[in-house]
Specification:
Length: about 260
């Protein structure tokens, strides 16, 4: 399932438009690898992933074709990394591409609205009341990105202390929705994924636009967790969750970088 990190204020309710990339049903048997080589090639105005020369298909039967050659190459690499069985759990970019192809067009407006809802309870806007050291760390790390959102996106969000919901300016949320709505399906799918991963529309927009690298955004999104780990140590389950999110951040960084390569 898509990692969904909710902000400390009023959470964004999960709904049918959330970009979950795995089914919630019982795990299906992994198919055997049936091809020798995956490659990227031009296909009309897009770039397709081919398996032994034949274009791969999404679960709904659409050609696995994406906007840039770099993104097609990223997907082809995942297919080439499969050995005897095709394990889609090890192919996060391919799963996100399937989502963009099969679901994003019909859910475009709803996905943009979801990004705006996250902005309404953005992680970066809720600073701890105590301890003082954590509050200071949050201010130093997060406030510059709120200032960036104001200057670069014309999205002004206000900081609050504590976990009680603090309404944000309606014009800022509308601007976030418009910016998201203007994106093509692959960029919007990535933005929605990153927003849920980080619990922050601001961090997601910054990564999408190349203003912030995805790994650093991941660290910013888990600043509170890291502070607690410094004080109390790390348990095994939390470490596994952190590692999984770090891998997803690596993928979404590569996804956006590939989309920017025209």
């Amino acid at each position: 399932m898509l990692s969904e990190r909710k902000g400390p204020a009023a959470s964004v309710a999960a709904n049918s438009c959330t970009l979950n990339m795995n089914d919630t049903e019982q795990p299906k048997p992994k198919p055997k690898k049936f091809y020798r080589l995956a490659a990227a090639r031009p296909e009309g105005d897009a770039f397709a992933v081919t398996l032994d020369g034949r274009v791969a298909k999404s679960p709904s039967g659409k050609p696995l074709a994406v906007p840039t050659a770099a993104l097609a190459e990223l997907l082809a690499e995942e297919w080439n990394n499969q050995v005897e069985l095709i394990d889609f759990n090890t192919m996060p970019a391919t799963r996100l591409a399937f989502t963009a192809l099969d679901r994003a067009a019909d859910a475009h407006q709803a996905l943009a609205a979801e990004v705006a809802r996250y902005a309404g309870s953005d992680l970066l806007c809720y600073h701890a009341e105590a301890p003082e050291a954590l509050a200071a760390r949050q201010k130093d790390a997060w406030d510059p990105w709120l200032a960036w959102a104001d200057a670069a996106l014309d999205i002004q969000l206000h900081v609050a202390a504590g976990i009680m919901h603090h309404p944000q300016p309606e014009e800022s949320l509308e601007k976030a929705a418009r910016d998201a709505l203007a994106l093509e399906d692959f960029a919007l799918s990535g933005l929605a994924f990153a927003t849920a991963l980080y619990g922050s529309a601001v961090l997601a927009f910054a990564v999408m636009k190349g203003a912030l690298d995805a790994a650093t955004a991941h660290e910013l999104s888990r600043l509170d967790e890291a502070f607690q780990e410094e004080r109390w140590g790390v348990d095994e389950e939390a470490a596994l969750r952190t590692a999984a999110r770090a891998q997803e951040a690596c993928m979404i960084g590569a996804w956006f970088a590939a989309l920017r390569q025209i």
